[in-house]
UniProtKB/TrEMBL annotation:
GO terms for biological process: proteolysis. It comes from marine sediment metagenome. InterPro entries: Peptidase_M20C. GO terms for molecular function: metallodipeptidase activity. GO terms for cellular component: cytosol. SUPFAM superfamilies: Zn-dependent exopeptidases (SSF53187). The lineage of its organism: unclassified sequences, metagenomes, ecological metagenomes. Gene3D superfamilies: Zn peptidases. This is Peptidase M20 dimerisation domain-containing protein. Coiled coil: none annotated.
Length: 114
């Protein structure tokens, strides 16, 4: 794993899991299930109270109550796309559905790229 020494480790583990999941537009079912299963397992493992919703078009919403003692703080909302832009400059192309993993690299100045 090229990201193994980056901190915080859990963030980069999740990033790599997502990056290694093919998810072209209108074909997000695999990443959606991975994220939902991750949340379900994390909830069980860490005894986290949450509610998980999915609408008819596949949007997912995860609601978690405030941490004890922080209930009066403003809530936080994070939003993101599940799909990725599936384009390549390789003359032979790239099969985003079947190749799966994309190679993650770190440049000599610390940028991540594929």
């Amino acid at each position: 794993m090229v990201l193994e020494n980056l901190k915080p480790k859990i963030v980069w583990d999740i990033f790599e899991m997502i990056s290694n999941t093919p998810r072209p537009s209108r074909h997000e079912e695999k990443i959606r299930n991975i994220i939902k299963n991750y949340i379900i397992e994390a909830g069980k493992t860490h005894k986290i109270d949450y509610k998980l919703f999915q609408d008819d078009v596949g949007n997912i919403l995860i609601k978690k109550p405030a941490t004890s003692g922080l209930e009066s703080n403003p809530p936080i909302l994070l939003q993101a796309h599940l799909d990725m832009v599936c384009e390549t400059d390789k003359p032979e192309g790239f099969d985003f559905f079947n190749k799966g993993k994309m190679r993650i690299l770190i440049s000599n100045i610390g940028y991540l790229y594929f």
